[in-house]
């Protein structure tokens, strides 16, 4: 009998399956808990807007029919809100799919993709799938080292991924830094800014990547409805890019890649500015509360521009994560994110944050 591995593409044989964070179901089954607080996946703890729920209910009766595969209504709304032509917009089944589509469209075997050493893992996974070579540049002070990235570019470099704010560190590179970086960049290298958490940023120095696209730089901005808009389970992502880039991506995008319910819920979400403003305000309040309370416990909290915190537990992060889960609080261990000694925690509702602080206060960190 033929071994299936002998038939598989060589480039994927050493890939590991994506390991998601601990789920409600796993904790409930393992520890017999019903009251569980999940702060591990950077979702909006306030959920979707009421307008999104109404759209979901309204369009659920039409799921036997394919959606408009051009998603014209959503593209036109995004175009108006962001002052870019509809031809500069591409939609994906989450921004994860757009990462894969970019590499499927542009990366040839053996070409290089540059990322940070500690960042979103899908860049490496998708690059390896396409038989590319990943080049990792170490972060500096938990932030992308743009000069280090420039130094790593070779004639074989095709694409650069910059997660901004960076997951899992929450740090940003600034507009001025990015402008200088782009001005030194070879014109044949595409820079992808993964801005999944951009709506949470309060810094006035955050890059205006859409302006760089308008100016003709080879820049892509990826965004999502999974975070601020609370639609993670419906998988809707979108990207802004030069028309020439979008046209090539469309060659590899499968038909109807965004489902009907996700499409309509995303469209409705854009009109509910009350919900988004409320979510951002609550996130900012929770950020301040958690930083103050966790520092009282002797823990170090890294500065963040996102909806999560990176916390130095000064010890075994896997053990701390396990102890928190036993107390019904799910967080993400740094060891699974490439940064031992830390945990990543989503900023939750007030009651979620209080429960986290209480659980941490009961843990003996001398492991």
TrEMBL record:
Its cofactor is pyridoxal 5'-phosphate. InterPro entries: Aminotransferase_I/II_large, HisP_aminotrans, HistidinolP_aminotransfase, PyrdxlP-dep_Trfase, PyrdxlP-dep_Trfase_major, PyrdxlP-dep_Trfase_small. Keywords: Amino-acid biosynthesis, Aminotransferase, Histidine biosynthesis, Pyridoxal phosphate, Transferase. Residues 35-360 form the Aminotransferase class I/classII large domain. It is an enzyme of class 2 (transferase). GO terms for biological process: L-histidine biosynthetic process. GO terms for molecular function: histidinol-phosphate transaminase activity; pyridoxal phosphate binding. Pfam families: Aminotran_1_2. Pathway: Amino-acid biosynthesis; L-histidine biosynthesis; L-histidine from 5-phospho-alpha-D-ribose 1-diphosphate: step 7/9. CDD domains: AAT_like. Its EC number is 2.6.1.9. The keyword Secreted does not apply. Belongs to the class-II pyridoxal-phosphate-dependent aminotransferase family. Histidinol-phosphate aminotransferase subfamily. Homodimer. NCBIfam families: hisC. This is Histidinol-phosphate aminotransferase. It comes from Natranaerobius trueperi. The gene is hisC.
């Amino acid at each position: 009998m033929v071994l299936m591995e002998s038939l598989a593409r060589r480039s994927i044989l050493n890939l590991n399956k994506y390991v998601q964070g601990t789920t409600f179901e796993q904790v409930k089954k393992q520890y017999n808990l019903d009251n569980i607080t999940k702060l591990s996946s950077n979702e909006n703890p306030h959920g979707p807007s009421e307008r999104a729920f109404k759209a979901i209910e309204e369009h659920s009766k039409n799921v036997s029919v394919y959606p408009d595969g051009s998603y014209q209504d959503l593209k036109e709304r995004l175009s108006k809100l962001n002052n870019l032509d509809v031809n500069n917009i591409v939609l994906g089944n989450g921004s994860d799919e757009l990462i894969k589509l970019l590499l499927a469209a542009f990366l040839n075997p053996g070409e290089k993709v540059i990322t940070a050493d500690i960042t979103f893992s899908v860049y490496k996974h998708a690059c390896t799938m396409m038989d590319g070579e990943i080049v990792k540049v170490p972060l500096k002070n938990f932030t992308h080292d743009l000069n280090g990235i420039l130094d790593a570019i070779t004639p074989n470099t095709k694409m650069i991924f910059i997660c901004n704010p960076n997951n899992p560190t929450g740090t940003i590179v600034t507009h001025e830094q990015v402008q200088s970086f782009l001005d030194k960049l070879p014109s044949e290298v595409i820079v992808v800014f993964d801005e999944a958490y951009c709506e949470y940023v309060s810094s006035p120095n955050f890059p205006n990547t859409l302006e760089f696209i308008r100016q003709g730089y080879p820049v892509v901005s990826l965004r999502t409805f999974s975070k601020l808009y609370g639609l993670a389970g419906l998988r809707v992502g979108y990207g802004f890019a030069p028309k020439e880039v979008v046209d090539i991506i469309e060659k590899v995008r499968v038909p109807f890649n965004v489902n009907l319910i996700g499409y309509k819920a995303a469209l409705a979400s854009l009109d509910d500015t009350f919900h988004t403003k409320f979510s951002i305000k609550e996130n900012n309040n929770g950020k301040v509360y958690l930083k103050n309370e966790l520092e009282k416990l002797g823990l170090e909290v890294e500065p963040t521009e996102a909806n999560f915190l990176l916390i130095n537990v000064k010890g075994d992060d896997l053990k701390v994560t396990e102890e928190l889960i036993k107390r019904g609080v799910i967080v993400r261990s740094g060891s699974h994110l490439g940064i031992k000694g830390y945990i990543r925690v989503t900023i939750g509702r007030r009651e979620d944050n209080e429960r986290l602080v209480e659980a941490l206060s009961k843990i003996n960190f001398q492991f």
